[in-house]
Design a protein that fits this description.
- The complex is a heterodimer of chains A (143) and B (337).
- With 143 residues, chain A is an alpha+beta fold.
- Chain A has 4 helices and 5 strands; from the N terminus they run H-H-H-H-E-E-E-E-E.
- Chain A has a 5-stranded antiparallel beta sheet with strand order 1-2-3-4-5.
- In chain A, helix 2 packs antiparallel against helix 3.
- The longest helix of chain A is centred in the first third of the chain and has 30 residues.
- Chain B has 337 residues and is α+β, with helices and mostly antiparallel strands.
- Chain B folds into 2 domains: 159 residues, Sandwich (Jelly Rolls); 146 residues, no CATH class.
- The termini of chain B are far apart.
- The chains are: A alpha+beta (143), B alpha+beta (337).
- The interface between A and B is medium-sized, with 28 and 36 residues.
């Protein structure tokens, strides 16, 4: 009688644990991080002068990955911090983003992203910045 | 034999056709409402398929874009707020076509194998090109910035010529000769793989390894100093442009200033940073993967016997590190270590 009583809650707990485990990993694999999320993180890092945060958003295979990992470089192209995203469009792995500063001056950049797939079964998909261009002339500022 | 003759004639006909095509400039793409200004000065809407003659111009507004093609020779992309003209000048007794950006920005791609390449430039500058992709920024103050993506460009202004190669750029002030060219060097040197498996070789004569490293560090120091100086100069101009940009109240005028004045200055500043960081990080890599391990090995191997050569090595090493700390470390940050 006693055995039956203890087995039932244990069984429920087991199922509950399994459900939590599955939902946790499923959530990870389904949500991941969008291109917009990454660019949001990137501009937040620039605004905060967080050089490690900036570097974490860049694709290590980019030629200027190390040389551009300095606040001086990004402050040159975002000279009136803080910036917020005020316009966004996406096509494939390329995003065209308009940033606005506190005095309402806008800056537009094109971000070419590389998709990063995690090595694990449930690893989320993320994006890193591979190339940044200034749109009126499509001049590359980072690659 | 008859067939061979046929082939030769066809070959010359093809070349002839290629040259003829190279002189015809056709509109292949348009966005917005770019205008065409003919030789009589009359304006009309530019249309897809239009053939442009020498002396004619394409004028784009703030939302316009036009792409021209010269057969298989070149593709010309005319950006917003630009005046682009096909001019003809006489050089060495021969008439030559010059693709002129009077104001604004134009990107051009030339195919090396497809006939004679035209010259490009602005009112004050002319550039000869060879199999090239380049962008020409013509500022409202008459200055020009040439940026070469690939190939070779010779920029001539006020009797002076500068040759530009891949990833090199030069600014030409109005009426003056080309300034000093600058380039984006690229990824820093990585000594980690270079030093691998060379421990014994480097330890055979540690003093000599130190001196070889000093030679390299001296080169990096010279490069760093050159680019920091250029950066400081460019940053002052770029900051002044940011300030001026903030003072412009009209949105359209502000955008025009941003594209034509601020951005070329920011690009020069940004490229100078990439270049001084190249020298800094190359020096850091040398210190980390060559000098550091060398120091550890020499110290470990001489724990019991610290003779004159050991003392000499240690003294020299200390000098090098001290110099590194004052020269390169101010340009590093936490992500570099």
């Amino acid at each position: 009688m006693n055995t039956k009583k203890t087995k039932k809650p244990l069984c429920i707990l087991g199922w509950l644990g399994l459900a939590i485990f599955i939902s946790l990993f499923a959530a990870c694999s389904f949500t991941g991080e969008s291109i917009r999320d990454r660019i949001g993180t990137f501009i937040d890092a620039i605004n905060a002068g967080d050089v490690q945060g900036i570097k974490d958003c860049l694709d290590p295979s980019s030629t200027n990955y190390n040389t551009a990992s300095t606040t001086n470089f990004w402050n040159t192209y975002f000279p009136n911090k803080p910036y917020s995203i005020s316009g966004y469009s996406e096509s494939g792995n390329t995003a065209t983003v308009t940033f606005t500063d506190s005095s309402n001056t806008t800056l537009k950049y094109i971000f070419e992203m590389t998709e990063q797939k995690g090595s694990g079964l449930f690893s989320p998909k993320t994006y890193l910045i591979r190339r940044v261009k200034y749109p009126p002339n499509s001049t590359t500022i980072f690659e | 034999m008859k067939h061979r003759k046929c082939y030769i004639i066809s070959f010359y006909l093809l070349i002839g056709a290629g040259i003829l095509l190279a002189q015809n400039t056709m509109v292949t793409y348009i966005e917005g409402s770019p205008q065409r200004k003919d030789n009589k000065g009359l304006l009309s809407l530019l249309d897809y398929g239009n053939q442009l003659a020498t002396g004619e111009s394409v004028i784009t507004g703030k939302t316009d874009l036009a792409e021209l093609s010269q057969g298989n020779t070149s593709t010309i992309r005319i950006k917003p707020n630009t005046v682009f003209t096909i001019r003809e000048i006489e050089l060495g007794g021969q008439k030559e076509q010059v693709l002129t950006t009077t104001v604004g920005a134009v990107s051009m791609r030339f195919n090396r194998l497809a006939g004679k390449e035209p010259r490009v430039g602005t009112v004050s500058t002319i550039a000869g090109i060879r199999g090239t992709e380049l962008t020409v920024f013509a500022g409202p103050d008459g200055s020009t910035l040439f940026i070469v993506e690939s190939g070779l460009v010779s920029v001539t202004a006020a009797g002076s010529t500068v040759d530009l190669r891949e990833k090199e750029a030069v600014e030409v002030p109005a009426g003056g000769p080309p300034g000093e060219k600058y380039s984006v060097i690229g990824r820093e040197l990585d000594f980690s793989s270079w030093a691998q498996g060379k421990t014994e070789e480097l330890l055979a004569d540690p003093q000599s390894t130190l001196e070889k490293s000093v030679t390299l560090l001296t080169q990096f120091k010279a490069g760093l100093s050159e680019w920091v100086e250029k950066y400081e100069k460019a940053r002052i101009e770029s900051d002044a442009a940011v300030k001026k940009m903030g003072e412009i109240t009209d949105t359209e005028a502000q955008k025009k200033y941003q594209d034509e004045v601020w951005f070329p200055l920011a690009l020069q500043t940004g490229n100078a940073i990439l270049n001084y960081r190249y020298y800094t990080l190359s020096a850091l890599s040398l210190r980390r993967y060559v000098l550091g391990p060398l120091y550890m090995q020499v110290r470990t191997r001489n724990m019991l016997k610290q003779d004159g050569s050991y003392q000499k090595f240690m003294e020299r090493y200390r000098q090098i590190i001290q110099d590194f700390q004052t020269t390169f470390e101010p340009y590093t940050n936490i992500t570099d270590y």
